[in-house]
Specification:
Blueprint (H helix, E strand, L loop, with lengths): L1 H22 L1 H26 L10 E4 L5 E4 L4 H4 L1 E5 L8 E5 L5 H7 L10 H7 L1 H27 L10
Antiparallel strand pairs: 1-2, 3-4
Length: 167
Amino acid sequence: MANYQDRRAIESAKAFARDLELLGIEVATRIGVRANRKAAVRLMDRLVAVVPENPEGPTKKYKTLKSGETRSYFYGSARENIRVRRVKARKQGHIVMQVTAGNAFWLTFYEFGTVTQPARPFWRRHAESLRDELVTIQLDELRAGIDKQLAKTRKRYGPIMQNGRNG
């Protein structure tokens, strides 16, 4: 059963790749960025909902310098800092979105622990639990984008043949 599903997924991926190839690099990139961003925003929304928060809210901290001057710093809450950004891909043709904690550096300590603080993972657990849903979101968005662009192209230029030329 798993073998059949794997074959079906591979065939589906090949069909997506073929359709994206027909559309051209710019259009395929635009569709891929939209699909990845939509999945990353879904992950961000889930993390914002489950991120641990101080019940008293964020506090403003003060630091006294050697000169005697007092400076304040405020990093905000963890919920405010979680965001999605596009990252330059290491390989050509890849689209990478990153869900990051921004200035909330303490979430790293919370997730992985420190010498004196035990690890209390939440980020990876929720990312793993959403994996199938995120893939489904990406596939649906890719399908919708490809269909929309192919319909536009067919309407404008006529049908597209297998070799990528108009008939």
